[in-house]
Write a structure and sequence with these properties.
With 244 residues, the protein is an alpha/beta fold. It has helices spanning 15-26, 45-56, 71-81, 101-108, 129-146, 162-166, 178-184, 208-227, and strands spanning 2-8, 32-39, 60-65, 86-89, 116-121, 158-161, 188-193.
């Protein structure tokens, strides 16, 4: 069972076509559900989710936040509502391609580790040169400080076990540090090259200014968490003999 968790804010016009593409990619492949967390939208995002899913016969939920709490909290809400063993996250703006999900699932089926994350890598990004430059610098700084081994932590398309995510410490902006947090618990991180597309409707909610300063604070916080993590390896378990 795959739970596709999508944080969304004011994405009417994008979310319906995205659900159709998810349905086309997964309907004959695996049981799945779609959970869209409407993070305080002022448009018809939630209604579009339900209407599209009803037309397709697709299992879906629109979980509506009373007010906007941010992308990490929306993902946290979605994962807690999820019934699937594995979580797939992707952005609601349509720039992530659902056609990449089957290959990521196939990669996950080859992994024996209990805790892991497969992170999408937008090798050929459909963004402005300025935005690509910002991301390149930010990724280099993050990787140098956290050593998470991920070239593109900002890609929304990821797969990880639900139980892995539940074990992570929650904080605002944590969604950008899922690979580092997986490594912190001794898990594996894998990379999958994915497609990246132009946004068709609306505008991005992020700018260089609203990412830069919080990013520095977040990296320092994640470094603090990593340095204080201890991984216990069980040598053996001895049990008492009890009468049957």
């Amino acid at each position: 069972m795959i739970s596709v968790v999508i944080p969304a804010k004011d994405e009417a016009g994008n979310i319906g076509p995205l659900i159709i593409e998810i349905f086309q990619a997964l309907n004959t492949l695996t049981p799945f559900e779609v959970i869209v967390v409407d993070d305080g939208s002022r448009d018809d995002t939630a209604a579009e989710v339900v209407d599209t899913a009803n037309r397709l016969g697709c299992q879906a939920q629109a979980v509506i936040h009373k007010q906007s709490t941010g992308q990490s909290t929306a993902i946290w809400t979605g994962v807690r509502q999820a019934a699937g063993d594995w979580i797939v996250t992707l952005d609601a703006d349509g720039q992530n391609d659902p056609a990449d999900i089957p290959a990521i699932i196939a990669l996950a089926q080859q992994i024996s580790a209990t805790d892991f994350c497969i992170a999408g890598y937008r090798k050929y990004r459909k963004d402005t040169a300025w935005k690509r430059f910002q991301s390149r610098i930010a990724n280099k700084i993050r990787n140098a400080m956290l050593r998470d081994g991920v070239p593109d932590t900002g890609c929304g398309l990821k797969l990880f076990p639900r139980e892995t995510f539940i074990k992570m410490p929650y904080f605002n902006h944590m969604h950008r540090y899922i690979p580092a947090l997986v490594r912190r618990m001794g898990g594996e991180v894998h990379i999958s090259v994915v497609n990246h597309r132009d946004r068709q409707v609306g505008v991005s909610k992020y700018t260089a200014w609203n990412r830069a300063w919080v990013g520095i604070v977040d990296i320092l916080g994640v470094m603090w968490l990593i340095r204080r993590a201890k991984i216990a390896e069980i040598k053996q378990i001895e049990t008492s003999n009890t009468a049957q």
